[in-house]
Amino acid sequence: VVDWGAGIRCAWDISESGALSLLTAFLSSSTGLAAYEAARSYADGRSVSHLSPYLHWGQLSVRLMWQRMKIAKAQSLSKTFHRRLVWRDLAYWQLHHWPTMAAQPIRTLYRDVEWSSGPEAAQHLAAWKQGRTGFPLVDAGMRELWSTGWMQQSVRMVVAAFLTEYLHLPWAEGAAWFHDCLVDADLAINSMMWQSAGKSGLDQWNFTMLPTSKSQDPTGAYIKRWVPELTQLPATYIHAPWEAPAAALAAAGVVLGETYPHRIVTRELSELRAVNVRAIRAARTSAAAAGLADGRGYDLLVVPQGCTLKHDGTKTALFTKQEYRQLDGPITATGRPSGLAAASMVDEGEEAEDGEALLTDWQKKKKEKNGKVAMSGGSSSGGGAGKRGGSGGKQQQRSRATFRELQRRTVDAIS
């Protein structure tokens, strides 16, 4: 009998005390929160918290974590880590209003994207799941996922981009596999990430992650840990072993196709991405005629009733990548103009802006319902000369709050 849970048990202290120890160490260590902004994108997870499983399963209270973060002045040390709990609520808000988002595009037009199918596509999907694609960084991430139930955020992006943009396989297949394997498998958070990877969610990743990127693992140590077949290969070649001279492969004991798989796709990365981009463009060609794109080419979405204050039941424009709006524009390997540097370490703060705008409106509506916010013509409530404006005093309302305001409101909601 195969004990498939052995690796997970070895990787985690599955207890409340384990969660609290991790939290304390992360907030106080010089290699934890203090180093998070600079080192959070490394594949080995050297400066991330590893707390997501404990939050998901309840060994760690989100309220306790928030209070400990306040004591540690987490926001001043890392605005990105501070945003994580806000994004968590953003994901739950999305799942509440789009309950089928685990399998169906939020942008309904993207249901018409023709993904790869057939025997070869099935073989590619199986190789991706097993960590046998021939792309070492992708394989390392997928093997770590199977063994421990976890992988660092940037590596999740690498393997997701590889599946959707380079193999042109359905994002929902990736979402389902992650949900089966992750120890922090949260239906809302996992679905939000994969919707973004598939370009069909409230946000589209305005970047891609190359499967040969060296930024996440510059020395190759992460790859060598999870792909031991390549342990002796020099770091110069470990991200793309097919580029190594025959002598280097022989010295490392690597025989491509025998000791380590050949690449499952060998075309140029820009050519592989072009298949995916053209399929998305094809699905969007009738968008304007169908009333699902505005005059600038941005996707339009009918926002569900009860979702926001400003957009309820109406169409709102969502961020849409330029290469999808320009149906005959150039396509590059990274999705960026060829004059720009290739995508590598990504600031995840680029994500979720449209979703945050909608969530902010929803929070305003909730407070209005509770009598906490007056929205009468943009004026402050009360007839007297109050501290925030008396009779006739006006308070300008904004459709988008700053992250600080959004964070404050989220704390109010969970307190």
What is the element layout, followed by pairings?
Blueprint: H1 6-11, H2 16-28, H3 36-39, H4 52-57, H5 62-71, H6 74-77, H7 79-97, H8 119-130, H9 136-148, H10 153-166, H11 171-181, H12 187-197, H13 221-226, H14 235-238, H15 246-251, H16 269-284, E1 300-302, E2 315-317, H17 322-325, H18 353-369, H19 403-414
Description:
This protein has 415 residues and is mainly alpha-helical. Helix content is 45%, strand content 1%. It is built from 19 helices and 2 strands. Strands 1-2 form a two-stranded antiparallel sheet. α7 (79-97) crosses α12, α9 crosses α10 and α11 (171-181) packs antiparallel against α12 (187-197). The longest helix has 19 residues, at 79-97. The relative contact order is 0.11. Residues 340-353 and 373-415 have low confidence and may be disordered.
Primary descriptors:
single chain; 415 residues; mainly alpha; two-stranded antiparallel ribbon; 19 helices; 2 strands; 45% helix; disordered C terminus
- Relative helix content: 40-55%
Biggest pleated sheet: 2 strands, antiparallel
Low-pLDDT residue intervals, each spanning 5 or more residues: 340-353, 373-415
The H/E string reads HHHHHHHHHHHHHHHHEEHHH
Strand content: under 5%
